Amino acid sequence: MTPNDTDIALMLRVKAGDEVAFRELIERHQRAVISVIYRAIGDAWEAEDLAQRVFIQVFRSARRYKPSAKFTTWLYTIIHNAIRNEYRRRSRHTAESFDALTQPGEAGEPGVQLADSRATNPSQIVIEHELQERIQTAIKLLPEAQRTAVILCRFEGLPYEEIAEVLNCSVSAVKSLLHRARDTLKEKLRGCY
Fold first, then answer.
1. Is the dihedral of CA 18, 22, 23, 25 positive or negative?
2. Which long-range contacts link 65-72 to residues 24+ away (Cβ below 8 Å)?
C-alpha cells in the first residue's frame, strides 16, 4: 500500500467519523504542514496555530472529501487557502509578531540553526546563517502564487502537476511562476553568495 493509499484510507475513515484515523492523519502530516506554513509566513508560533486550523478544516471538510486526487494535493490546497486567508487577515490587522520582538541570538528563535560542534570555521557558519535568513526573507516577499509554487516545489518536492492542482492553474502557469520567482530571487540575492 502506497502512502497515498494509506492517506486516502485514513481520510475515508475520518469521513465515516473515525477520530483515531484523524489523529493518525495529523501525526503523518503535521510536520510537513507546519513546515510549509512556516516557510510562507516566517513565524513559528503562527505556523503552529495555523496548522491546527488547517487540520480543523480537514476534519470539517471530511464529509465532502472525494479521493479523486492525491490526499496531499487536497491537503496542500487547504494549506494554501489558509495561508492566503492569513495574509489577508494580516493586511487588515497589521501587528508585529512576537518573533520580531525577540532579541537576536536568543535560544529557540525560529530560523536559527545550531552550529555543528564539528565545524571549524565560525565565520562560515555566520555567513551561511545570514544567507539562509536572506533567502527566507526574499521568499516571503514574493507574490503569493510564486511563493507557494517555490515552497511546494523546492521544499516539499511536489511535481508541477500537483502544484498546478493546488494553485488551480495549468502546469505551464506553474513553470512560469517558478521561472519568475527564480529571476526575482536571483535579483534580490545578487551579491549574497
1. positive
2. 65/11, 65/12, 65/14, 65/15, 67/8, 67/11, 67/12, 69/165, 70/4, 70/7, 70/162, 71/4, 71/7, 71/8, 71/11, 72/4, 72/7, 72/29, 72/158, 72/162
Query: What number does CATH give the domain 111-193?
Result: 1.10.10.10
Nearest to 182 by CA among 158, 150, 140, 144: 150
Give per-residue pLDDT as tens, 42-54. Answer: 888 899 999 999 9
Nearest Cα to 42, choosing from 149, 135, 181, 145?
A: 135
- The label of the residue with cell 492517506 reads 7
**CATH class belonging to 1-97:** mainly alpha
pTM of the model: 0.69
